[in-house]
Amino acid sequence: MPRPAVLGFARGPFGAFVFALLALLGSCASAPSQSEAEACRIGLYDFRSQRRFELVNEAHTARLDQYSQVRDNADRKVQSNEIVADLAGWLEKEGFGALAREGASPSRGATDAVWAMEIENGGKLRHFVVSKSTPPPDYALCRNLKAGFLDIYNATYAGQATQTKEGQSPFLAPERPGRVRPAQ
Fold first, then answer.
1. 3-class DSSP state for residue 79?
2. How far is Cα 3 from Cα 53, in angstroms, rounded to an integer?
3. Which residues contact 22 (CB under 8 A, 6 or more apart)?
4. Could you tell me if 129 and 106 are in contact, meaning their C-beta atoms sit under 8 angstroms apart?
5. How far apart are alpha carbons 150 and 17 in whole angstroms?
6. For the chain, which residues make up each domain, given as ranges?
7. Can you give the pLDDT at residue 110?
8. How many CB atoms sit inside 10 A of residue 5's CB?
């Protein structure tokens, strides 16, 4: 079953979930204060490209603290406490807990590891790793979790200033092992 597009809010349960999350951005009615919310970090790590995608809530890192400093990369984005809490709840409901192990994901994947996802919430850190030998039913579940995370991550605005090295362009995709960019 194809997953609904982010902008196709009316299609499927995930579309309704995304619509509800985005609706929360504009409402502050019963939102907990920053001091009441628990710090939460959700990360996705691609071992092939060595890319990290992290979404944290404001209780974890204040937007001003994150975006006011020049950093090596713009992989971490800050989202509201409510959106990150709802995303973590959705990931749990969709099966993250069934696959997760205690502790941090490995910093480097095993030879057949492809990517990993981890959630740090309330001082508890759990992760799962997707490899070439992941069973097809688990792989389909993992792809759904990854797609849900990336939909929210990509819809999150970030104003991160980054430092580029001399001769490096911020607009080119990073080179992956086994892929060489032609000389210009």
1. strand
2. 20
3. 155
4. yes
5. 14
6. 37-155
7. 61
8. 13
Cα 39 to Cα 123: distance, rounded to the nearest angstrom: 8
Q: Helix or strand or coil: residue 128?
A: strand
Q: What's the rounded Cα separation, in Å, for the pair 155 and 98?
A: 27
Which pLDDT does position 166 carry in this prediction? 78
> For residues 171 and 7, what is the distance between their CA atoms, to the nearest angstrom?
25
Find tokens 């086994």 and name the residue: 178
pTM of the model: 0.70
CA 106 and chain centroid, separation:
16
Ranges in the chain, pLDDT < 70: 1-35, 108-111, 169-184
The H or E element that residue 78 is part of is strand 76-79
Which residues, in sequence order, are CB contacts of 73 under 8 Å at separation 6+? 52, 162
Alpha-carbon gap, residue 118 to 106, rounded angstroms: 10
Comparing CA positions, the residue from 3, 1, 2 lying closest to residue 151 is: 3
Do residues 106 and 116 make contact, with C-beta atoms less than 8 angstroms apart?
yes
What value does the CA radius of gyration of the chain take, rounded to a whole number of Å? 17
